[in-house]
Design goal:
The protein is about 75% helix and about 0% strand. Helix 2 packs antiparallel against helix 10. The radius of gyration is 21 Å and the shape is globular. Keywords: Cell membrane, Membrane, Transmembrane, Transmembrane helix, Transport. It comes from Achromobacter seleniivolatilans. InterPro entries: EmrB-like, MFS, MFS_dom, MFS_trans_sf. It is found in: Cell membrane.
Length: about 475
């Protein structure tokens, strides 16, 4: 697909002031939805002990509130693109934000564990529709030459949520009550719906295909089994044979789906997208980098709280530094990629991202707080730059008719990548403890986790080196030489 045809895939920049203002608001609107989902997904973990006491349960049992949400997201993400094409992206987006807000209220009003789990399942269903469909609206509204700038804005909420969630959750649980971790979604949801109705036009396909029910069933079982298996790795919440059986079930359904997808005209997850080099490389290499999204907050929490003995709130205030790094990235991502090109930025930055993850392994209880914050800030900058580049390049050469399926595919891959990142970190901690012959976590175990996750992130550079020198040049007007 040529640069000219790729640019033409999206509408030309709007000329009248109202349309121009609407186009500029799209990344902010989708970012609000993404922030609400990412914040909700992380803030609950901090509040589990307080919620367990209030609901007459235990933190271990209440962990099902997190698992049920993740499983619901995994099951319904693949259908989001089809729903947007069939019923209209704007309509589905508004409905998803509304359902997410209402289910958040239901979570806050829950009187026991079954009620909370039911509300979390509905909330996960809404979240599975909300973010991919919002991204579809952005991809079809923002001209491709402005996509990098839009994605640099959109990547910030994804990184802010996991960082802000722990200190915010700790503050609310300590000084307010656990109900507020869900009630804070109400004003965000109301604002999001108002902005969508004001600035977003309806987008839908003229003739959407029928839903691939068999593909939906196979993909649902595959993703639910894999996500729950990855989340359970290293946490001793199920017997090893059951865990291996769960992962085997997910892999088996995945193979069956791949066989099925080659035999239907409109599969719910379009595997043919992997024939597009920029999409395939961004998906595979990007997921190695996304291990850090799930693993780094988990490892930092273990290091600062268990290893250093800090309170959840104090630890959260330190890790907030990476959010500041993500904010700084917003102002320089576009010039950096425009000057150096996607291939060079992603290849070199993957190494830098991995290095700063491994630098966290050098932290000790005597490390000055200012140095911890400085390293986390710079690491957050590089991590945010990497995700901005990957998320933008993912859609560089996607034909307009496949944007919805590409968004669903990418969201599914991201969900698996983040879950697998947590699993890899947890397994590394357990292996390190086993090798020491210990049953309690020590600082050296967390050090091993940072090193493994950092090396995996650095390994993605081999994937990004396969990009063409001019890959994604039409997204930002970059002028690269052929010998780069």
């Amino acid at each position: 697909m040529s640069a000219e045809s790729a640019i033409a895939a999206n509408p030309a920049p709007p000329q009248n002031p109202d349309a121009l203002r609407a186009a500029r608001m799209i990344p902010f609107i989708v970012g609000c939805a993404l922030f609400m989902q990412m914040l909700d997904a992380t803030v609950v973990a901090t509040a589990l002990p307080a919620m367990a006491r209030a609901l007459g349960s235990t933190p271990v049992r209440l962990n099902v509130a997190i698992t049920s949400y993740l499983l619901s997201v995994a099951v319904f993400v693949p259908v989001s693109g089809w729903a947007a094409d069939r019923y209209g992206a704007r309509r589905v987006f508004v409905a998803a934000i509304g359902l997410f807000t209402l289910s958040s209220i239901a979570c806050a009003l829950s009187q026991d564990l079954p009620q909370l789990v039911a509300a979390r399942i509905i909330q996960g269903m809404a979240g599975a529709m909300m973010v991919p469909v919002g991204r579809i609206i952005l991809l079809r509204t923002v001209p491709k030459q402005d996509l990098l700038k839009a994605m640099s804005f959109l990547s910030i909420p994804a990184l802010l949520g996991p960082v802000i969630g722990p200190p915010l959750g700790g503050f609310m649980v300590t000084y307010m009550s656990w109900h507020w971790i869900f009630l804070i979604n109400i004003p965000i949801g109301i604002l999001g719906i108002a902005l969508v109705l004001r600035y977003v036009a309806e987008i839908r396909e003229e003739s959407a295909p029928r839903l691939d029910w068999l593909g939906f069933l196979l993909s649902a079982v595959c993703l639910a089994a894999l996500v729950s298996g990855f989340e359970a790795i290293g946490r001793d919440i199920m017997p090893l044979p059951m865990l291996l059986g769960l992962i085997a079930l997910g892999a088996g359904c995945g193979f069956l789906y791949a066989w099925h997808a080659r035999r239907v005209e409109h599969p719910i997850i379009d595997l043919s997208l992997m024939r597009i080099p920029t999409f395939a490389i961004s998906t595979l290499g990007g997921n190695l980098c996304r291990f850090a999204v799930g693993a780094t907050p988990f490892l930092l929490a273990m290091l600062l709280q268990v290893g250093f003995g800090l309170s959840p709130f104090s630890a959260g205030l330190i890790t907030f530094a990476s959010a500041a790094g993500a904010l700084l990235m917003k102002f320089v991502a576009t010039p950096i990629v425009r000057h150096f090109g996607f291939r060079r930025v992603l290849t070199v930055n993957a190494l830098l991202t991995g290095i700063f993850i491994m630098v966290c392994a050098t932290f000790t209880p005597t490390t000055p707080v200012w140095l911890l914050i400085a390293i986390l800030l710079v690491g957050g900058f590089f991590r945010s730059l990497q995700f901005t580049g990957v998320n933008t390049l993912t859609y560089a050469d996607i034909p307009p008719g496949k944007m919805s399926r590409a968004s669903s595919f990418a969201a599914m891959a991201q969900q698996l990548g983040i879950s697998l990142g947590v699993g890899v970190a947890a397994v590394t901690l357990n292996v390190s403890m086993t090798l020491r012959g210990a049953e309690t976590l020590a600082i050296r175990d967390v050090v091993a986790g940072f090193i493994v996750v950092g090396l995996l992130c650095m390994a993605s550079t081999f994937s990004f080196r396969r990009l063409e020198p001019q890959a994604g040049a039409h997204l930002n007007g970059a002028k690269q030489s052929d010998d780069e």
